[in-house]
Amino acid sequence: MSIKENDDPPVPAGDFSAWLLVTEASLRSGTGSADVPCGACRGCCRSSMFIHIRPEETQTLRRIPRKLLFPAPGLPKGHVLMGYDDQGRCPMLIDERCSIYEDRPQTCRDYDCRVFAATGIAVDREAQPKIARRVAAWAFTYESGESRAEHGTVQAAAAFLQANRDLFPPGSLPNYPVQLAALAVSIFRLFSDLTAKTPKDPSLDSDAAIAQAILNALRDGEAPA
Ligand code: SF4
Ligand code: SF4
């Protein structure tokens, strides 16, 4: 018997525009702390995730036994990853609570699974069923027509990135769904401008031209990658 993802009752995710503003600011600064109404969910602590910890997170590093950390592939010396046990659980999750909550890694502070519900980008249900279940339950509200329209544009930007990956040079778009979702949020205002201009500006009359404009903005730092 299969369990439908939407068997769980809806969980309020907040007004979409309010969530979007906070998330955009967090992505720009790179130091945000997502205020996710997780409740009793510990999905991301039990989903076989490698947690990246930066060298400057000294207090966090002091709290985690050295034997649980290993060098992060492809990153400069000092960047480390914390793995998970044979059930996919973070070793810092003890009695269903984060045992280092006040000093938890920035990666954990940043993680907000509402980004999947916001963009429509799918979680890997096989690998991360607990997160997928919560994502299916999130229900945004819309305090204005603009809020609802913004949700539509964020989803359109995400769909564009997914459908046109071949228009971007290899390596220029993230492979991990959560990172691609964050990118869609980062570029959605630009995407909205570009698609609005398309009828008036013949130079933007193709997906390739829109993809190039997004790439240019990322390279110029006009949108956080
Ligand atoms: S999966 Fe989502 S709701 Fe659950 S703990 Fe992680 S961020 Fe919170
Ligand atoms: S460090 Fe804490 S918040 Fe982060 S994954 Fe582990 S238990 Fe969860």
On the 0-100 scale, what is the average pLDDT? 91
What percent of residues adopt helix (DSSP H or I)?
A: 40-55%
Q: Which stretches are poorly predicted, pLDDT < 50 over at least 5 residues?
A: 1-5
Instruction: Measure the end-to-end span.
Output: 41 Å
Structural class given helices, strands, pairing?
A: mainly alpha
Silhouette: globular
Question: Hey, roughly how much beta strand do the residues contain?
Answer: 5-15%
Largest sheet properties: 3 strands, antiparallel
Strand arrangement across the biggest beta sheet: 2-4-3
Task: Please count the beta strands (DSSP E, at least 2 residues each).
Answer: 7
Number of helices: 8
The Cα radius of gyration reads 19 Å
Written as H for each helix and E for each strand, in order along the chain, the element string is: EHEHEEEEHHHEHHH
Could you tell me which ligands this complex binds, including any ions or cofactors? iron/sulfur cluster
